[in-house]
Structures are given as structure tokens and as C-alpha cells.
Design goal:
The protein is an alpha/beta fold. Helices cover 57% and strands 16% of the residues. Strands 2-1-3-4-5 form a five-stranded parallel beta sheet, sandwiched between helices. The protein is globular. It starts with a helix and ends with a helix.
């Protein structure tokens, strides 16, 4: 359902529109993990996604992110590529190894092959920094939708 149809339902004010909004809100909520060594970037991403109704947890590095994924089984992971310690490429590889089918979005300000490598090792989508709110939420929605459609096909 598009944003336009949600807006139309909101404007109609009828009970069916209200029901549609609740259903859309429930479907769009996801548990998302954000991994980035930049605390300000994590806060910005958290604010954007929380405003959209998602539950967001963040980690400051790949090791912490992998531990949190093990503990909480997030629906989607967003990870920076260039980080000290375990970088994003290694984080993507390890998450894919441990959790096949996990939806991952990788992002980086450094486009020198890093984003291509992230896709090669299992990221579902990649984004170049700076992350624009609408672009970020579009990619998050695409990944979550792809996961639901795949689940509907296999179930």
C-alpha cells in the first residue's frame, strides 16, 4: 500500500480507514539493528526509523552487533562499512554465515568498491552516505517487503 493510499484513508475518517491504518502500522513495524561506530550517525538513523514506527537498537561495532543479533534476532540489520575493529564487510560476511537469509543494508561514505563488496558478501541493499531520510526509509521498506513476500511464498 502506498503512502498516498494511507493519506486517503486518513482523510476519509471512516472506520475502514482507521482499520487500514492500524494494519499498515502493524505490518511496517520491524525490529532493526543499526551498527555504526559513529554515535551521531546511529542517533540520526534511530530517529528516522523510530519515527516510522520501527523498534531500533544500535551497536558501536561489528562484534557488538553480532552479539545483539544472536540475542534478539532482528528483522533487519543496517551496518556501516568502514569501522575500526570488525569492519562492515566482515560483519556482513559473519552475519550471513550465522543467519542465512538475514536482511542487511550496508552503507558507507567510501564508495571505492566497498558497497559492491558488501553486496557480493550478502547485503540485500547498499546506500552511500550521507543518508537521506526518504532514501533510507525506502530501502528499509524494500528490504522488509521483500522479506514478507519471500515468507508468503515459502509458507
Amino acid at each position: 500500500t502506498s503512502i498516498a493510499s494511507t493519506t486517503q484513508a486518513d482523510e476519509s475518517g471512516d472506520a475502514a480507514g482507521s482499520s487500514d491504518r492500524r494494519r499498515l502500522r502493524t505490518q511496517s513495524m520491524a525490529r532493526i539493528l543499526v551498527i555504526d561506530d559513529d554515535q551521531v550517525q546511529r542517533r540520526i538513523i534511530r530517529a528516522i526509523l523510530t519515527e516510522r514506527g520501527h523498534h531500533v537498537t544500535d551497536a558501536g561495532d561489528g562484534h557488538q552487533g553480532i552479539r545483539l543479533q544472536k540475542e534478539h534476532a532482528f528483522d533487519l540489520v543496517l551496518t556501516d562499512i568502514v569501522m575500526p575493529g570488525m569492519d562492515g564487510i566482515e560483519t556482513v560476511r559473519e552475519l550471513v554465515r550465522l543467519y542465512p537469509g538475514l536482511k542487511i543494508i550496508a552503507f558507507s561514505a567510501h564508495e571505492n568498491g566497498y558497497l559492491d563488496a558488501a553486496m557480493k558478501f550478502g547485503a540485500m541493499e547498499v546506500l552511500a552516505k550521507p543518508l537521506l531520510p526518504d532514501v533510507l526509509t525506502d530501502h528499509v521498506d524494500n528490504c522488509l517487503r521483500a522479506g514478507r513476500e519471500a515468507g508468503a511464498i515459502t509458507n
